[in-house]
Design brief:
Layout: E1 2-7, H1 12-21, E2 23-25, E3 27-28, E4 40-43, H2 48-63, E5 66-71, H3 77-83, E6 90-95, E7 103-105, E8 107-109, E9 113-116, H4 123-131, E10 133-135, E11 143-148, E12 152-154, E13 161-164, H5 170-183, E14 186-193, E15 196-201
Parallel strand pairs: 4-9, 8-10, 13-14
Antiparallel strand pairs: 1-6, 2-12, 3-5, 5-11, 6-13, 7-11, 14-15
Length: about 210
């Protein structure tokens, strides 16, 4: 499935790392921009001591995971504004496997992830339910999330397409075109019209 990673011009070194090394950086989930990330509520009919041990185990399981957040959509003005420097950056198109248990579209819910403890079989199952969900006000992001035990997720396929924002400085845009030509990466620019955002192909030799 296709997913998009946004980077601003001030973070262009991270975009280049994705393009040149075919990898995605995975962050500590506690450092993400949602303060309610990883927080959960629960219900149970079990004994207090058993539940306390389970909650502690879930906390330990969560600490083992790192997160990379992408979007299934590059055509959102808000995503460009929030994550690509107000259109001065780039959206990198990435191909992800459809069948990986560590890659999933986010489930959007209330403020807290909610667990029915009596139905939870393992601590890892609970952890995945928590970390593959997010407060519904973030729904505009249409997030695809990668869970990883490592700092980087290695892509199975190299980057084949990037889309630069209309506010990217000319010198930076030209430098990226050179990189794209050398790496056989399709180079596109954002086009904005009445019908929304498009990705307009640019021939590096004629730009």
């Amino acid at each position: 499935m296709k997913a998009y990673k946004f980077r601003s011009a001030s973070q262009i070194q991270f975009a280049l790392d994705i393009m040149l090394n075919s990898r995605l950086f995975c962050s500590d989930w506690r450092k993400l921009n949602d303060p309610m990330e990883g927080i959960f509520a629960y219900s149970t009919h079990g004994h207090d001591s058993e539940i306390q041990n389970l909650v502690k185990g879930i906390g330990n399981a969560k600490s083992a995971y790192k997160i990379c957040s992408l979007s299934e959509n590059f055509q959102s003005h808000l995503l460009w504004a929030h994550y690509a420097g107000g259109f001065d950056g780039v959206a990198i198109e990435i191909e992800l496997p459809e069948d990986s248990e560590n890659i999933r579209k986010i489930d959007y819910r209330g403020v807290f992830a909610f667990l029915h403890m009596d139905k939870i079989k393992t601590e890892d199952e609970a952890t995945r339910k928590i970390l593959f969900s997010k407060y519904k006000e973030w729904q505009y992001e249409r997030e695809i999330r990668i869970l990883s035990n490592h700092d980087y997720y290695q892509l199975a396929q190299p980057v084949r397409k990037i889309i630069v924002g209309q506010r990217m400085q000319k010198a930076l845009s030209e430098a990226l075109q050179i990189v794209c030509e050398a790496r056989n990466i399709e180079f596109c620019r954002v086009g904005i019209g009445d019908e929304g955002i498009d990705a307009d192909f640019v021939n590096p030799l004629k730009a």
